[in-house]
Input
Amino acid sequence: MSEMKVILEKEKFKSLKGRDINVLLRENLPKVEETLKAEREEFLREKIAKLEEKLREMEGEIGELREFYEKALRDKELMMAERDRLRKENEELRKRVEEKKKELEKVHRS
Output
């Protein structure tokens, strides 16, 4: 059996002097268990409240990330469309430059 130390105030010790400690412990054990159970329940309620608050914060952050991601996808689509447009324009400009070069070469040869 393990050892247990109980520290009491002097007045409380004097009031308990001469009484059977085992009887006192057995009488008060249900009250202590009830108190501990109530304290544990309160602790768990506080913990649940904190976790629920953290969950709400995380849901808000997820919502912000979702908006950011959706905007990034839209921006990516716009940028890809602009890139494709610029490639086509660049291709057309190269063709024109090549045509102009050929015309200039014909003029210089003549």
